[in-house]
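Weekly structure sync - notes
Attendees: PM, LS, DV (DV joined late)
Agenda: review two folding runs queued last week.

Item 1: First target. Sequence and structure tokens pasted below for the record.
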Amino acid sequence: MNKKSVLIIIVLYKKRLEESMGFSSYIENEKFLVHRHELIVYNNSPEIDIKASDNFTVITAKENKMLAEAYNEGLKFAGRNGFGWIMLIDHDTYLNAKYFKEATIFLGNTNRCKAAAPIIEVKGATASPIQYKPLLGPYFGFHPITKPGYTGKCLAAFNSGTLLDVEEMRKIGGFNEEYPLDSLDNWYYHQLYKRNCRIYIMDVKIIQNLSVADYGQMTTSRYKSVMNYSLKFAMSLGITATASWRLRNIGRCLIQLTTSNKRKFVPLTIQYLYKHWID
């Protein structure tokens, strides 16, 4: 295994390749990755024909496998082909040249870290990574991490731009398919924390148009998924974290009541104050 090598994974759903900002950012900035690297495009929409080229491999699922199964396929590919790291890129995130330069520097000397993540801003505020207390979960008492550096503390970070050590991910059993899409990143970062793994916060800021932050485009089924799996993760942390999640949900109700494009979700949000799951 080449410990400096990296397999890049981009997962597409109902998107053509040319519509993916993640793919465009890779093509434009691949030249800055000086270590051995390869790209896999995982196509979750078999009705859309995406053809492989000399520059990347395409895996087309027979049905939508969401993220966890797609990432696990990438993890297996990485193991079979001797890659030391995987890089996750969301289809809707543009990773700039500095990100790829920083990734190259990190891969050259990981300093015993098992993961690395960029600083991501959403609507002008740092949304990832955040540091939190496991007892409370990432719901109360958390604070955004705004400076680069190394940490062994408990944090949550977005999938996009994350670099993960292949061997370490295999030790935790890969990506947990009980979290097929939402809260998957919370789950594996928490597993790394429990294994006392160091994380590197990269010296780069990325602007992300987070789809779940756009309530104007949010469907009821998507909202249920976000809520179901965030509550599932809270429950996995314990009673206090679950209570913390529900307490924050009260605040969410109040915000939704006073915001026109969020008001339609109030009845569902109220149900989550006493339910564990809504189908």
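Item 2: Second target, run right after the first with the same settings.
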Amino acid sequence: MKLKEYQLDELILKSNSGEFVLGMSETLASVLIPTFTAIFIFSIGLLINWLKSKKEKKNELLAYKNLILNWIEKVSLGIENQAIACKDFSERLSKESDLSVQKLVYTKLLVEKILEIPISNYIDSFVVNSTGDPSKNYAQVFVIIAQLNFINDMENEIPNYYKNFQNLTIELVDEWNLNFKILNEIFPSGTSVNAHFFEEMNRIKLNWIRSTPDGRSNLALSMKLLINPLLELVKNEMDESYEKNYLFELSSTLQDLAITNMKWLKLKNEYAQLFHITNENISNSLNSLLDSKSYFEKQTNLKYLFLIN
């Protein structure tokens, strides 16, 4: 009997001596704990990778946002200077009394570089992953892209405007010089008409020469003191003189010069107005661009990391 009692006690001790881990038997714990540990480590790895990708995406969005806004800031001075140059050209041209090609200061704006960024990057940085009213954000993105495209178009158009003006002006200069040369050649033959008419011609010519002590008269002064008075003189002489051929030739040349003058006045007024409008359009476009830049800088931010798409 004692031997049996001993054996029973031994069994009870063995049973009571089993180890427990976190409320589980050692056997069960040896299975579940490694499993849960592996799952936990795997989940942490997924979370870290997810956060890393979110962080990288946010850094990319921030880089595009800063690039676009900073580029607008950098090019704004050049855009403003180009607008001022157009205004200055317009004002000088509208006041110009001579037939000549005015100088235009031209600035390289470099707007086309920022337009190389895909629109999807604008949407991602300024709308999808940005705080603020999405409809307002979309509207401001549209303003930025539209104004950048307009300014880029103007960067290409302004040299074309100026080149056309330059070519047309040179044509008129050649036209004026040719007709003035003809006038100078036929002027001495005025001796074939009556003496009074010839004296009046010389008086007008001498008065015009005296008004140009440097030997060069601008177009406006030549029209006022030479061409128009001679036209009036020829008109009056037509009714009395028998030298019609000479008077017709003189009148035709004078009228050609007057027509050149009218072409010049029309040309310079048109281009003065064109560059005036160009200045206003560029200035308005720049103001809209800077307003949109200010909106995104002051009224929006990138969303929190967990909300980045």
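Discussion on item 2: DSSP finds eight helices and two strands in the chain.
Action: LS to circulate a short write-up before next sync.
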